[in-house]
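Escalated from tier 1: nickel (II) ion holo job.
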Amino acid sequence: MALLGDKEFFKGIGEIKYEGKNSDNPMAFKFYNPDQVVAGKTMREHFKFAVAYWHTLCGTGGDPFGPGTKVFPWSTASDPIKAAEDKADAAFEFITKMGFDYYCFHDHDLVDEGATLAESEKRVQKTVEYLKQKQEASGVKLLWGTANCFSNPRYMNGAASNPNFDVVARAGAQIKIALDATIALGGENYVFWGGREGYMSLLNTDMKLEQDNIGRFLNMAKDYARSQGFKGVFFIEPKPMEPTKHQYDFDAATSINSLRAYGLENDFKLNIEVNHATLAQHTFQHELQVAANAGMLGSIDANRGDYQNGWDTDQFPNNVMETAEAMLVFLKSGGLQGGGVNFDAKTRRNSTDLEDIFHAHIGGADTFARALLIANAVLENSPYQSLLDNRYSSFAKGKGSEFAQGKLSLMDLYDYAGKNGEPEQISGKQELFENILNQYS
Ligand code: XLS
Ligand code: NI
Ligand code: NI
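Tier 2 regenerated the structure:
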């Protein structure tokens, strides 16, 4: 059986190393220095960078106006198991050369679906055996697994929210197999992204029944995985739309509410994706903060959108200042619970060289690393935190502190306000806060 080093797909590219920001070597990290300690942890530990199998190993660049443009040398075999093994060889060569520790997959990124459920299961199991050996040989681990319950036409009306119970059951079977695969590979987490769990028109939709069915379904999946010894975290990945018009897991706040409504809040956290946040008319940092406030900041899908259009462009991260604002939330909330930073991003359709995949991941890792360094410097060396504390200092003393401890009634507020007179005008100082971030960048 072919294991590491048997065949090289990314010829002429060696291990990507940290060379610092003055390096002109495009195949080197300028800011991501895996063993550098920042705020008590190495960068490697903070981020747990993961490669997304579906984009990096499977996405050949097809769009609604034309077919794929990229020719992957690992996608030539006609036998599905051989093709899956070649793809795994390429995946592990790439992840190892990047110096990353993790990968993420959908079941049928690993191997194509078979004609029947039984055949699909057999294929997944065979590929899992192969991946196990690749993991052992390389030390690369599985950050999370998931099931693709949105591409196959059978899911056109949804998976767990499908109006037809037969499809709901079929999705359940597929997720059982994907959970088994994740557990067999020591996956640290399991993701649910409800691609088609939403609706296009309320006229033909029983929203209450669909949402209740998702709640029941997620409980079943959780109970099954726990019964098989899975100790990891389940993540919901919010997204407002695309492919459905109204997706049920619209944003972090909506998802947290449904998790609580269906009793899932102790086992589930959120996987926040940058461009899903912007599609929901939020910022990435807003979504991180909402998740963190609920103790549910689990993982990140790193990418970016495009401000001039409104779909999930899944570009690699490169906006340092925006990511720095996100890293402020990240550091202040103690980082991610269970998850990591998964590059759910793809190179552009006309980026057709194999080395472009390296440039993309190097840029993404450097963007996060540089942003982390900025956020850490702001927190450690600048007046940022004291300005922020000062803005809320009225709740740290006197009546304000009693209010914050829940000791006052509305009548107490009435009495206090009556004696206090008109409140003093206090500036929000937004420009000063922005300047501090700029100064430490
Ligand atoms: C699609 C999602 C998807 C999930 C995994 O927009 O980001 O890729 O991360 O199913
Ligand atoms: Ni994603
Ligand atoms: Ni996405």
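The chain has 16 helices and 14 strands.
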